[in-house]
């Protein structure tokens, strides 16, 4: 029997994800929506999120690895799947057989995909052009050769060309226009080779700020989870809440210190609440002395260092009860800390915060599941 007392739990609001995708789809009315569910749906749980995304109108699901795509297919997801990055030893045959669209960024990758296609079948391929991110993708100098090879390969159907933007979360950054120009040139080359591919380029930020780059498919990632990648108002709802509960309450006198290293000392008599969640559960130790939690209807500071399995909250004269809910981060609608606030204090992005919540001791609860 599962205890109702959460040591560390993330609540995933699937209605928020549906709401966000509906909003994002409305921003790109002429495009299909590829909901990106890579990395276990950014820590939110790939299968429940994939189902919610399809219910919200997504006609594609995007994964990084073929293994992620196949797991969704094996779980009964019939929506079109796209997988774009694997190691050279991956056998593409299972993906082709399962109807997963695959990415090719080089002649070698194209040939491995073609070789994996069984007689009488064709692999569906999206050719990736590197337009300036300089990660995965075919360099422009080799693009024409890749396009010609793909057009001549009978075991391959070129479904799309695509690329990824480097600076779309900075709406005025000139790199986006330069990448758009290179993408247009790559598309013209593909058309000249006799191909008629779809195009997809827009991530969450470009979906929200660059309607000229929506093309045939848009790829919302972080925005579908309610975290806005650009500094503008959107009615996006964060889907993840990280919570725990009070395990012990004690009162200490002024002058007593708390946790390892005694980095915090009580300036007055105070009540402490012990919370059984620590850095093994996704609470960064580097937030020690810099974080609050939501407890008893208000923010309260964490006293001393965050430990592997626990942290301590300074409650002053407020006396919480054992079992009271503690919100470590959430949507922020009541004043509770948010994933973005954590990220700002740590000098990182909220993507890193939510994806790090996929941990063995962190229990997941889904809200808004449909049968």
From TrEMBL:
- Domain of life (superkingdom): Bacteria
Provide the Alanine racemase C-terminal domain boundaries.
239-367
Short name of any one Pfam family annotated for the protein: Ala_racemase_C
Q: Does the keyword Transferase apply?
A: no
Q: Which reaction does it catalyse?
A: L-alanine = D-alanine
Q: Could you list the residue ranges that cross the membrane?
A: none
So which cofactors does this thing need? pyridoxal 5'-phosphate
SUPFAM superfamilies the record matches: Alanine racemase C-terminal domain-like (SSF50621), PLP-binding barrel (SSF51419)
For binding substrate, which residues are annotated in this chain's numbering?
A: 135, 308
| Record-level GO BP terms | D-alanine biosynthetic process; peptidoglycan biosynthetic process
Residues of the signal sequence?
A: none
Per the record, residues carrying N6-(pyridoxal phosphate)lysine are 38
Q: Which UniProt keywords apply?
A: Isomerase, Pyridoxal phosphate
Q: What is its EC number?
A: 5.1.1.1
Identify a single GO molecular function assigned to this protein. Answer: alanine racemase activity
**Active site feature:** 38 (proton acceptor), 260 (proton acceptor)
Write out the pathway annotation from the protein's UniProt entry. Answer: Amino-acid biosynthesis; D-alanine biosynthesis; D-alanine from L-alanine: step 1/1
EC top class named in words: isomerase
Q: What is the documented function of this protein?
A: Catalyzes the interconversion of L-alanine and D-alanine. May also act on other amino acids.
Please give the name of this protein: Alanine racemase
| The species this protein was found in | Amycolatopsis vancoresmycina DSM 44592
Q: What is the lineage of its organism?
A: Bacteria, Bacillati, Actinomycetota, Actinomycetes, Pseudonocardiales
Write the gene name: alr
